[in-house]
Structure formats: C-alpha cells, structure tokens
Batch of 4 targets.
Target 1
Amino acid sequence: MSNLLPKLAPLMARHEELAALMAEGGLSGDKFVKLSKEYAELEDVVELARSYKKAQEDLKAAEDLLSDPDMKDMAYEEVGTLREQIPQIEEKIKVALLPKDADDEKNAILEIRAGTGGDEAALFAGDLFKMYKGYANEQGWSMEIIEMSESDLGGYKEVIAEINGRGVFAKLKFESGVHRVQRVPATEASGRVHTSAATVAILPEAEDVDININDQDLRIDVFRSGGAGGQHVNKTDSAVRITHLPTNTVVVCQEEKSQLKNRAKAMKVLKTRLYDAERQRKDSERSANRKSQVGSGDRSERIRTYNFPQGRVTDHRINLTLYDIDEVMLGRSLNKVVDALITEDQAERMAEIGLN
C-alpha cells in the first residue's frame, strides 16, 4: 500500500481554509461564488482523504493490539478488513485526483453517419442510433432528434440528436470513431457476410459562455423542408441552413414545424461543432504525448467491430471482446464497454502524473 497522505494534506488544508474564508463573511458575490465552487470541487477528494486517514489510523491501532492475547483474534480480523479497504479507498482517491475534463458534465450532441456499405451502412447507422437511445434510457437521460436523413431501405444516412442528462459527455466521449459491422444483409440472397461502417461523433454541447459567434460570419437560408409522404414540413419555408463563413461549417435543421425552433436547434449544433473543433485541436496537441489510443480523439480510426455471425463486439483500442451482441445493440450491455474504456483512460492518466 502506498501513502497518499502527503499528496492529500495540501488539499485538506485548502478545504479548511476555504471554509474559514466563507464563514468570515464580507465577501463580494463573485468572490463568494468562486470560493464556493472551489470548495465544492474539493469536497469529494477531501471526504475520501478523511476516510483514508482514519482507516490508516485504525489499522495501526489494530496492529498494535495483535500482541495482546485477549484482543488478538478481534484485532486480526480488523487488520484483514482494513488492509482490504485501504487499497480500494486509494484507487478512488487516485481517480478523484485526476485533472478534470471541464466538459465531462455537459450534455452531448450525437452525430451518426453511414459510411462505406451503401444501404447496409445506413441500416447499421440506424442500429447504432437505437443502441445509444437504449443506453440513454438505461442512464436516465433524454434524447431528442435534431436532424435526420433516412435511407430508402430504412436506417439513416445521417442522424443528429441531443442527449441531456448528468455526465453524458463523460460517459460517451470515447464512442467517437468508425464503427464496423460484419453481417449478412437482408438483401443478400447468397447469405454472404458483408462489412460496412458508420461514423460516430460525440460532441460536448457548447454553452453561450464557451463560444462567441459574430452575426456577420453567418449566412442563414430558409427553404421548404423535404420529407416522405407529403408531411406538413413540405408546405412552409420552415427549414433552416446556417453557414459559418470563416470555417465553411454548414448545419441544416428541418425537424420542427417552426422556423424559429429549427434556427435555434441549428445554432446549437453550429456552436457545438465550432467548440468541438477547438477542443479537437487542443486534444491533438496533447495526444502526441499519450500512449493510450482511448482518449486520442482520432475520429477516422476504426474503434469497434460488431460481428453478428459470431455474436461478438470487439473494441480494438483495449482489446475487449464481448459475446453479448444482442444486449449491446439494445444498449443494455453497452455499459460494459463504456466502463472499461473509462477505466483504461483513468489508468493511463494516473501513470502520466505518477499516481500508479
């Protein structure tokens, strides 16, 4: 067992200092908010530090009692329990000490696009959307479609959705990349296995304070929406296309009846894409020093294969294979992959800052 108390002592002292400063009063509103935020950010790790310190003190006391014939049996049991608990607390502390990703608690924009494979790729894109929708339900999140383009045989050429809930981006940020499927398409008469792909992008939803867009940098076009079956959207100029001229980023939204609602949704996606582009630029600079592929952010990389004939899902970054494809595609077992990716990323970051 390592001793983390030297690393924790300054944090515990700062936590007490903040409590005293806030108790004194006389602080401006902004100053109080700033101190309160710092205090709250330290709360979890300080609580763990107190538990860790007490467990170590209890362990020493129990070990001292091992030489007492009357207390030996009880002390031996206590020592065993504490020696098991302390490493578990240490691991929680190490995770709590990792630098926080400022975007982890944000909602996310999910973008899925059919890749190579024609109609089968579009069907697979639809299956991926159902998988993430099922996972969102399991997590207690809500999902709303912002834009979708259906293919002739079903599925999606493209689907964009907003996922709202606690810690959405933290859970889903490692899902970005190329997802590959191997299966026999419904249209394949000979029963031959085909390989096709779809790309997934998970973007942290930008807030107004994150990014500022000048009106003169935008071109906004409205047009009559297109849809199958003579939907109401065909009858009014409710669809909105927003182009960010400096970056040539284009966002289209036509899911709502209201032009204003479509414009608001399109602006949300535009801000998110521009914010994410800057985030990707910074991540690329940092990732050059990282050994792990989990957090590399390379969205052109093939990250996962879904092999239906063999009933397996393989994540290539961490060499994880699950023979549980039906439950994964329903979203019910996706947590096994998500949690493994998070654990691997945490271990890599611990090694980087000497916490392993």
Target 2
Amino acid sequence: MFELDLAYSILLIVCLIAACGFEFVNGFHDTANAVATVIYTNSLKPWVAVIWSGTMNSLGVFAGGIAVAMGIVNLLPVESLVDQNIAHGISMVAALLLSAIFWNLLTWYLGIPCSSSHTLIGSILGVGIAYSLLQEAAGVAVDWGQAQKIGLSLLISPAFGFTLTIILMFLLRLATKNTNKGDELFKEPKKNTPPPPWMRGILILTCTGVSFFHGQNDGQKGVGLIMLVLIGIVPGFFALNERASNEDLMTSLKKIELVINNIDTRPLSSSDSTKLVSSIVMNKHLQGHLANHIDIGQIKKDDRFNVRRDILMMDRNIKDIIKNDEARLSESDKKILESNLKVTRNATDYAPPWVIVMISMSLGLGTMIGWKRIVKTIGEKIGKQHLTYAQGGSAELVASTTIGLASWFGWPVSTTHVLSSGIAGSMVASKGIKNLQADTVRNILLAWVLTLPVVILMSGTLFLIFRSIF
C-alpha cells in the first residue's frame, strides 16, 4: 500500500481508522449541541432529531471547504517533523490521535460537554513542543502565529455565544411583552406536547443550522487530521496536490521572483535578510523542480515533500518580511506577493475527495450514536429550570450563526462551548446568575481549563516515548 512494507501499511490503516474514530467520537460527543433543544422542547422525537442532525453534519462536511482543515495542518509545521524515517511520522500521528481520542471518550463518559477542537489542537501542540526538546529538532516545531489565531477564536467564541444569547433573549422578551406568543415562549414546555407550529419550525431550523455548520467546522478538523496522517506517513503521495496547475504555479513563482529579487536588503534586520536570501534560493529550487514537468504529478515522489517544504517555508518567510514592513515594499508589490503566494499554496492546501467522504461518513454516523449523556447535561444540568422555547431557540440561533461565520473565515471554534455558553446565557437572561447549576458550570469550566494542558502533556509524552522506541 503506497509502496510501504506490510507492517507500515497496517500501521497506516490503523492510523486512518483512528482518525476516523476521532471524528466518530466527535460526532456523538457533539450531537447534543444540535439536538438538545429540539428534544427538550418536544419539537422532534430523539431518534428523528439525531438522524436528521447526522445527515446535516455529513452534508456540512462537503460544503465546508478546507480553510479550517489547513489551519489545523499548518498549526504543526510537518516539514520540520517529517524525515525519511517513516517511523517518526507514525510516532507523531499515533501520539496525537491516542491523546485526542482518549480525552474525548473520557469527557463523554463523564457526561461533560468538552471541546473536540481544544482536544485536537492540544494534541498537535503537545507533539510540536515535545519535538522541540529533541536534539535533532530542526526549524520551528509549532506555528505560534497560527496557534495564537486559533486560541483567540476558541477563547472569544464562548463569550460571544453567552453575551449574544442574553441580548437576544432580552430583545425577544421586549418584542413579545404582553402577548400570547410571549407567554408561550417563556413558559416551560408541557410534557410530550410539541410547541406551536411557528416555534417548532424555528427550533428545527436552528437545529439544522447548528448541525450543518458543525459539519462544516468540525468536519474540516477531521479532514485536517487525516491530511496530517497522510503527509506524515506517506508524503511522496500526499505532500502535493496533483490537480494544481503546474503552469499557474510556475507563473506565480516567476512573479514572486521578480519582486523579491529587487528588495533592498540594507533596511532589513539580519533575520529578515536571511529569510529573503532563503526565499530566493527556494524559489529557484521550485522552478527547477517544475520546469521539466507538464504537471505536478510528474515530480518524483522523493522530491515532492521537499517541494512542499520549500513552498510553505517561502510563504512563511515572505509573509514575515511583508508584516515587518522593513523591506518598504509598495502596496502593488505586496499585492503581487500575496496573490501569487496564494496560488502557490494551491499545491499544498488540499484534501482528496475520498478523505472528505470518509470524514463525512464518520461524523454523520457518530452523530447518531451515544448522544444521551451530554444531551441530559445540556438540557437539564446547566440551568435550574427546564429549557423553554425562547432559551432553546436563542441559544441555537446564536450558535449556528457563530459557527457558520467562523467556518466562512476559516476559524476553528468549539461547537460545544459556543452552545453550552449560549444555554448558560439564556438561563442567566431568564432569572439571573442564580439560575445556573454551579456544579455543572464548574465541571464544564474545569474541562475547558484542563483540556489543553492535560492533552499537551499526554501527547507530548507519548510522542517522546514512541520516538525513543522507534
């Protein structure tokens, strides 16, 4: 398989299954985020809700693009960690997969809404940090700029969900004050009685939105994870996108070359000067690799990872030079560099269709299983009152909007934390802070705080153990 020995082929299959397993666990861990409100407001029967949610999750994966997936892949500079020793790639992949799956399963078993995004990102960071401790470590082990962006999106999104839900509840109460609809919205649902048709439609629509956008955002994380596995273990086959246009790539490299060759090195710091010289060399190497080929698929498998590494490092170096602004580039030159760097990334930022299908199926099937534990936590244990129509609709409307916008901009966010904070906000909007169940909120916050350090430590330790064994 992919020109690997039998033992490595088996390990690759195991890693791919484990990556699908992570997304499967993500599915049943996060199902509650979409279906809790429609179940607890009697809008849909539980099994109808989870099947519908699973279907929407699957469709969302196909509509998600790859911006979030590449954010995950680029968080860990694979070009620094991967070498000719396949076992090193397997060490990286196995460490982050085992850590992420273990923590997801543990928090699911305990019924604690925990972010699969935090878990995956913590696992990746742990491997990168551990690699930097090795004597043979070369280059940057973690893209801290990317980590900062992801961390900011994960930090802001729950606060956004909490605050916006309170505001929406206030506006809804104001708009329906002294009306029959207001009485219906803010009263506890009658047992086994569905809400009024108009409210039921809104709740089903918001459930659909959360499910679809969850597939867009969290599905991309699974796609990114699979690509980390493939690039880490069989880079000769997956380091480059064979569908990218070789002609477009060559044209962009030449345009980049014209600009960077004319940059005056005198104002540059020693660091940026080194990056510029390195970028010029890498650009020449890339043009040399591509010059004698009609398409990218003709590049030798042994050379493909080097081409990928040069594209990514050149991209990073030039963006650093532009950002520092020491080169005093004109706005037109900056635009030329930025637009053409984007074209070169078409060769590295991609996912084969079969990867998207695998993740879609894993997430969709996972969504239909194991939902009861966390549905109960969200529906009954965050607040002291039964979820009302207004609370369920407001929390899910805010969650679906937040996750949809995050997917559009390529930001990984936690569906779990956005919706849980929205439910908490709706409870506070109803009867104040005293309406929250302190034990549940404390457990959610504790999981939120502990996830990153625990998973970083776990994945980093496993990585160092596997590297020493292999």
Target 3
Amino acid sequence: MNSYCPSCFIMVFALLSSGCFPENKISPSEKTAVKDGYLFCMWNVENFFDNKNDHRKTEPDKEYDSWFGDHPADFKLKLDHIVEVLLKMNNQTGPDILALAEVEEDSLVPELLKAALNSKLPPDNQYQQIAFKNPHGGRCIATCVISKLPIVSNRVNLLGKRVRILEVPIRVNGKELIVLATHWTSKLTDKEGTGRAKYADQIHGAYIAMARNNPDIDFLVCGDFNSTPDEACVKQHLKTTSTEQETMIRKREIEGSSGESRWLDFPLFNPFSDWKEKKIGSIYYQGKFELYDQIVVSPGLLDNKGWSCDPLTAKVFNSSPPADSKGHPVRFGSEKDHKHARGYSDHLPVTIRLKVHEN
C-alpha cells in the first residue's frame, strides 16, 4: 500500500485520467439484486488525498498532498476509517453505487478505496468500476463514482469547464440511470451564492436537454451542494419540489402544455426537503447543523418503470461512527489541527434505495 510499481502506476493513472475502466459484461450484483434493491450513497470524504506527494502548489491542497504523501500511516488511517463506515451500510456489504466528493484529482484514491473495500467483501459482491475525471477547478479535488453495477464508461463525462459535475450512466438489465456526482462552490469563496446558482442552472439545463427527448428519464443528482434544500439555488435554480405529488402534477402540466419555454420549469424532486422538520443535517459548522449533502431525483424515478427510488429511504447516515453522540460528523482533521481522536469526515453520508423494474 505504501510503495508503487512504476509500470502499474502509469497504467492506472492513464485509466483514471480517461475516466474509462473495463466494463464487466455482467455484474454479479446485476444478476441478483437483493429484494431491497440497490443502495445509493453520496459522501463528501473531506480532503481525501492519496499516499503520493504530487507537490501540489495551492492551499489547502498542498497541505494534504504532502501530509498523506509523506506520512503513509496517516493516509492508511483515513482509508481504513472510510472503509469502516461504508461497510456498516447495506447489511455490511457497502453501497451498491457510491458517489464521493473531495477526492484528490488525478490520484489513486478511487482505486485504493475500491481495493480496500473489495478485500473485505465476498467475490460475488465486489466493486467493479470507477468513473473519475479531472475537472481542473480551483482546487485539486474532484467527484467520482465507484460502482458494483455496470457503468457505461465511454459516456462518462464532465459537464462544463472547471466545475465538479460528473455525469455517469449506469445500466442494469438494459435500464439506464443517469447519475450526476457534484460538488458546488463553497460559501467561503462564494458568499452571494452566484457560483452555486450557476452550478444549479447548468445541472438543470443538462437535465431538461435529456428530458425533452424522454420526460420519463431516470436522472439523479447528488452532491455537496453547500446549500440547504430551501435555499434559492436548490429550490429555484435547480427547480426542486418538496413532495412527490407536487412533482408529478407539475410534470403532467408541463407535458400537456406547448412551447419550448415550458421545459424551463421541468421539476426535480428533493426527498430531503423536510430536513428541518426531521431535524437532520450532514455538516456541523459554527454551531449550526445544516443539510448540504443531498440526493435529488427526476419524476422518472418516482414511477414503476425502469429505475425507481423509495423517497422514504432518503436518509442521513448519522450512526456512530461516523457521527458523535449528538449525531454530528466527527472530522478527520488536518495534520496539525485535530483536538480529538481522528474521526472520518466533516460531512455525513446520505443514502437512498433504488430499484430496477423488470418491465
């Protein structure tokens, strides 16, 4: 784990850069889905850099790059902690589809995590593929997807320039799900929210471009939105609704009307809209518990064909670990800044159950 074979590194690095990994013709998980369907998880894993010093130049990337690269034991502790949490999910088998944020770009993190997870899983229930591309954004971090289910690798795509919006098609039994793994601009650098609004506009624009051709498209957006479900960038720019009924009514009204402008309000449903009533959050910052990490779905995921989701299963994974006794995330921290035993991440994972219908 702490040393590299140069030829192997070059081969894996090339695959990581292309975002394309060999696609299994038939995944074991595709053959036999458990009766509960598939578990989808999104998690911001807090500055997850690998154990190779790439001599990053900008902060805070420089700090984590050199820390984990020069202190492989700390990297291994971080890796072990992430694996520990993920294998608590889904009857101790890990999520079937895993989307991550704050993964070091052009790194071996996805491959090392996949290998670490698979070392603890039976051969017929292992992670098969990775989708990972470098967004060349302001920081040396990216989103990625690690999946037990088949990824359509030649269609993995980044939407836009210098933005963390990774488009990943996943196909099971001929049914396709489009996953967007995203990480929106931080409030530390985007105080007015214009950057986050641009993220939301770009995502919704990509969605309606697909929905024009197929209003029943199975489309899922997940990520660290750096915004709560009731903020304008999520509610107004991403065009999210608060209930399944509202979503389907709006969809029918738009389909029944004419004119291209009707598509501008084509809805997405946010099953985390009731976060205040449920008193849940995914990040605890400056004395406030906020829900920044979300999973949002198209109306197509609310019907009984293709892929579907169960909105009632949308949850924040706030067990201990990775949360403390109050349900707050316990961060791993930086090299010098940790006042407690090292935790897991400053964000909690969010999950939802998906299903693929036979007809």
Target 4
Amino acid sequence: MRIAEVVCQLLRVPNVERKTASSQDAVIVRVRTECGLEGIGEADSQPEVVKAIIDAPYSHNIACGLRQLLIGEDPLDITRLWQKMYRGTMYYGRSSVTITAMAAIDMALWDLKGKYFDTPICQLLGGQQHQKIQAYASCLFGRDGAHTRDIARRWSAEGYRAIKFGWEPMGQSLALDLDLVRGAREGIGDGILLIDAGCIWDARTALRRAKAFEKYDLTWLEEPLRADDVAGYRWLRNRSPIPIAGGEQECGRESWRPLIDAHAFDVYQVDLARNGFTEADYIRQRVQEIGAQLCNHCYTSPVTVAASLHWLSTCRDTFLFEDGVDDSPLRHKLTHERVQAVDGWITVPPGPGLGVTLDEDFVDEYLIAESGRETNGDNRCMVESAAQTK
C-alpha cells in the first residue's frame, strides 16, 4: 500500500468576524492510497500558509514540500514519515507552521491506519483510560460582566457544569477584569470556572490578578503571560494561588520540551491540530512523568475534536475536555457525526480511525481552494535522485 495523493482543502465561512476564534476557516488534509483508502486530518493555523508548506515544490534536500516527501511512501510507517518530513523541511523553521502542517498529515495517517486495521485510534495509542470525559463549554467573554453572566447561564442551561471564558476584552483594566470574572461566577453558580487571559500580562501583574481572582474559585488561570516567557511561567506557577494552564500554541516536542523541563504549568494543553498524534504521545509521556495534568486545546472543527478525544482518553490523569461551542457551521456541520458534549459529558467516536466522516456536500459548499489531486512525477524523481546522491 502506497500514498497516491495528499489533498489539501481550504474551507471558510462567508463572513469572517474580527474575533479570536479559529472555527471560521479550516484546512483539511486528505491522504489517499493507491487502493482508495483515505485518512483525514486538520491543522489549526492560517490555512493558506499550511497549504503552501504542503504544496511547495522541491528546492533542496532540507527544503521540500510535504507532498513531495510523501508520495509513494507506505502510510503505515508513521514514525518514519514524521522523521522524513521533519528532516526534509529543516530550513522552514522547527517549531511553528511547518509542524502544524505535519500534524495535519500525521492525523490523517493515523486515521488511515485505524481504518486499515478497523480500529479506533485510541486503541492504537494503547487503549482508553476514560470512557467519557467531563466537557467544559469554551467560549469568549461577553462585552462586560453582565453579558458574560448571561452567556454562562446559557451554557449552564445546556448541561455544562464547567465553562471557560477567554480573551478580549480582558486586560484593559483591573476593574473590567474583575467585572468579567465576577459575572462569569454569578452565571455558572458553583460549577467549574476557567479563565483564559489570552497572553496579556507580565508575571507580576498576572500574580496580582491571580490573587484578586482567588475568591472566585477558579480551577485554572490560562495563559496569563506571553507564550515564550518560560521563566515567567515557572516564577508565576510557584506563587499563584490558582493553578496555571497553558501551551495551546506550542507545536511539536522541541517547542514543548522547555516548558515541561521547567515545570511551567499545572495543566498542559495540547492541540492535536498543531502536534499530531505522534508528537502528542511523546508530550503525554513527558507530562505524566513530572506529575502534571493534561488537557486538550481545540477550537476548530469536529475533525480535531475527534482527534483530541482519542488522544485525551488515553491520558491517565485527564479531568476536563475543551468543547468549543462557537456558533459556526465549521464546528458543527463539517462531519456527518456530531461530536459534542451531551449533559456536560463527551465520549470518543466509536468507529475506526478518527470515527468521523466528512460531509462532502458541506465541503463543496464552503470550499475556497484545493490542491494535490494530481502529482508531479518529474519532481518526485528529482527528489529521489537527490536523496540517492547526497
């Protein structure tokens, strides 16, 4: 069995709003074999940039498009293919969009492998430790505390006993920050409340906010500092009265290693659409070794929701699942299967691979670009020849 096509599809809703929500567009990768078996994956990044990484032609041995590296390969050799993609794109940058593109392909390869063996991915990863996981409704803050309170009441009425609010307008002033958190607590009652600050403070300001928020009984304070401030996170975690969560934007083990080595977080949030199963499995083992907790990050489509469920269900100490509730057709209609919490709990799709299938009519309606159905044989020969003469 060999890879025949790597198809990259870009989808976008008609009216993209100016808000921090990655459920308004999507890049779907489909890996197909010569015998017609297909696996699907997704990257959470800027879709056109991911597409460029996949579509790029051969330049030289360590600057090659991902499709060129994969055509003709055995799709079951997943670890070897990750290593081949990693080496073949060394000049692209080692911990950002290249890894997200690789993650989408990796997700598709695992989906394909599960279908080939007629087995859910969680079984291929070692088996489920959790049959169901409590889900938290993940949403943006309202414009103020009163609006945030109303949003919390809405999702509480839908059965969620855990809710997270994040990003704008938090960070404009102490008064507004307190108003937002107070409103969220009033709306959710005695449920689990999570706050995502959106990388807005320095360490000392974050500590002051954590102390001010302590009376509202937060389960965690997420990403209060800029993402690269590893030393700041370690300093803050050792002093904060509230557990610190973070890591959603990290891509691959080299990006995660400094944070894990520093014990920077209490909760490590791994996005399968930025890491893929191969790297996420490594991260899971490292985080469990240091006695910290794991959670998924997911704010895109049901493809990544399904991937996150398969992975997180294998994590020993998992206790919450991020369930994006953004009112976007890409979140709710891309697959025939609806992958969402029921009465506040969510379960792994039971079918082989990811357990979800794309709604092709929906894909056709929202498709804005596609590439990869035809391959360039001459370029492939050039890559193989260059590799042989190195």
